[in-house]
Amino acid sequence: MSTPSSTADRDIVVIEDEEAIRDVVEYNLQREGFEVRTAGDGRAGLQLVRDRTPKLVVLDLMLPELDGLEVCRALREDPATRLVPVIMLTAKGDESDIVLGLGVGADDYVVKPFSPKELVARVRAILRRNEPCEGAGSTEAIDADLERDPDRLRVELGAVSVDPDRHEVLIGGVEERFTRTELRLLYVLVRKPGRVYTREQLVERVMGENAWITDRTIDVHVRAIRQKLGAHADLIETIRGVGYRSRDMATTAPDA
Ligand code: CA
Fold it and tell me: Which residues neighbour 119 within 8 Å (Cβ) at sequence distance 6 or greater?
């Protein structure tokens, strides 16, 4: 049903040391028309990605040689692979692994044991979300609401400045590394200080309508953002039972 323009558009690297899982993932992605390259350890996987930049990486967390976190960190530090989407495979119920994975720049995660169907759906969702995003640093894929916003540019709130076009977050004038998802989430919140968003609204605005992502994921991303905001973590307020908002400085701080 798909119409790939070239194999490069369908190129996925799967890094997983458990052969059975690797085979199942490879089989199911190939069946959907993807070209799949596989590696059984982190070092070999990283090499595959560096040989030829894929459209997406499926990355197991627990790997020999280099573990998934190290691989993900290495990908994010290299300008050539900085924007390649990463789906992390994590152990069941281990939230700290999920937090760590998202913290080093994974775009999404799938908890083992997972259904191949679910993984394929997430791969598709992420690729769709990134489709128009060809140029490095571009945020063309940012949700439709932001696309329509003619004033889409740097926003500032207190000590925090977010520039989606340059993929840049400054905290007290110092640049801090944010994942795409974190940056979008922060941008949505900071753009309208004081406005409360439900988790569902944030999922929709940040991930797009067809996102295969749970409300709980938003909590994980917010936690990561607050960690990076450090002393300014209170900029993002939790509205109990509802969702989140950014602090409205105009009403809480004296204006100069
Ligand atoms: Ca493993």
Answer: 25, 28, 58, 87, 110
Span from the CA of 85 to the centroid of ligand 1 (angstroms): 19
Distance from residue 22's CA to the centre of ligand 1 (Å): 10
| Sequence ranges of the domains in the chain | 8-129, 136-252
Cα 74 to averaged position of ligand 1 atoms, centre (Å): 18
Strands (E), 5-157: 11-15, 35-39, 56-60, 86-90, 108-111, 155-157
CATH architecture of 8-129: 3-Layer(aba) Sandwich (3.40)
Give the CATH fold of the 136-252 domain.
Arc Repressor Mutant, subunit A (1.10.10)
Say how many Å lie between the CA of residue 18 and the centre of ligand 1.
6
CA of 34 to the centre of ligand 1 (A): 22
> Can you tell me the distance from the alpha carbon of 64 to that of 68, in angstroms, rounded to the nearest whole number?
9
pTM: 0.58
Contact 130, 85 (CB under 8 A): yes
Instruction: Give, for all 256 residues of the chain, the pLDDT tens digit.
Output: 444 456 667 999 999 999 999 999 999 999 999 999 999 999 999 999 999 999 999 999 999 999 999 999 999 899 899 889 999 998 766 667 777 787 777 877 888 889 998 899 889 878 876 654 333 333 333 444 455 454 557 888 999 999 988 889 999 999 999 988 899 999 999 988 887 788 877 887 887 655 566 677 889 899 999 999 999 999 999 987 778 989 877 655 444 3
